[in-house]
Amino acid sequence: MKYTDIQASGKVLKMSKLVFGGCSLTPMGNIENAFRALDRYMELGGNTIDTARVYGGFESFDNEDIIGKWISARRNRDKIILVTKGAHPPIGDMHSSRLSRECIFSDIDTSLRKLGVECVDIYFLHRDDPNMSVGEIIDTLDILVKQGKTKAIGASNWTADRIAQANEYALKNNKTPFTVSQIQWSLLKMTPRDMNDDTLVCMNREEYEKYLKINVPVMAYSSQAKGRLSKAVGKDYKVDSDYITKAGLSDKTELIQTVASVAQRLNTTPAAVSLAYITSNKLPASAIIGFSGLAQLEDSMSDPDLSLSEEDFCLFNNK
Fold first, then answer.
1. Which stretch of DSSP H or E encloses residue 285?
2. Predicted local distance difference test score (pLDDT) of residue 26
3. What is the DSSP letter of 90?
4. Nearest to 219 by CA among 123, 154, 291
5. Beta strand 11-16 pairing with 3-8
6. Is 229 left (phi over 0), alpha (psi -120 to 50) or beta?
7. 3-state secondary structure 11-42
8. 168-175 own/partner pairs: CB under 8 Å, 24+ apart
């Protein structure tokens, strides 16, 4: 599997282009199924596990706790890139900030304890607070790096402009910069409204051009637009008109037909094509994959090194 290079305290983390989306563990239902999914992901060539303090939401199936038990059982901490996130707003009050030093310190300490590790490879802030200065936030994150609790820091659902401001401050003040970002990005374009959360940041043309300038790699979440493209194209590469109508995708019919055509020409799956749009993009990126069962996981990882041509990118970008 190909990799995305992430700078981390003078070293380079080799992140697999397809990332295990930890939020998919909850539908697994029990620890045995969760372990099977994590094992299968590694067998298929992946090396990066993405989780968050907020995932799971209840002690009986705490996401980080499950991953921590798997790491302990498999003794594979040195074989994985471990990513977690904190400072998520209170559930039900997404516009309340939790970016205080106290909240960030508390979240990462809880994550490390749950995961059973002393350090994660990348620690993300789940949201931004535009009312706070970037300096105040970077100063707090820099302490985490200097304390050895994380090797690198990332921004989740921050605009490219705010990341640029934060990194400018970090450079001027000898602090740790953001070296990776997580935003929603998929071939089937989505908006915060589509995701029912106006605190999210979705990739669009303006953000994309800014990312090319700030040279910060992206980890794309909801990278398959909740599986909509795969559901719209059958195994025989025929477009499912009924599903398109029910899913409210009638205005995307031409794009879906193009995905079906490209997948058939390349003898691959619609899932692989939609992920390759991210992983072979000129903007360095990895795609976080979500699934509800092993079959979906294997479908997503069926052609991990697929690259799209410039002609294919033009086809998609014009739809």
1. strand 285-289
2. 79
3. P
4. 154
5. antiparallel
6. alpha
7. EEEEEECEEEEHHHHHHHCCHHHHHHHHHHHH
8. 169/134, 169/135, 169/138, 170/138, 170/142, 173/135, 173/138, 175/138, 175/139, 175/142
Domain residue extents for the chain:
3-227+276-305
- pLDDT 10s digits, 283-306: 999 999 999 899 999 999 999 999
Q: What is the pTM of this model?
A: 0.96
Task: Give residue for tokens 């499912």.
Answer: 240
Q: Phi and psi (nearest 5°) for 122?
A: -140, 135
* Residue range 3-227+276-305, CATH number: 3.20.20.100
Mean pLDDT value of segment 260-273: 96
Instruction: Tell me the C-alpha distance between 202 and 221, whole Å.
Output: 9
d(Cα 25, Cα 66) in Å, to the nearest integer? 9
Is residue 143's pLDDT more than 70?
yes
On the 0-12 / 13-18 / 19+ scale of CB atoms within 10 A, 163 is: buried
From residue 289, how far is each of 121, 189, 217 by CA, in Å?
19, 16, 17
92: its two tokens: 């039900």
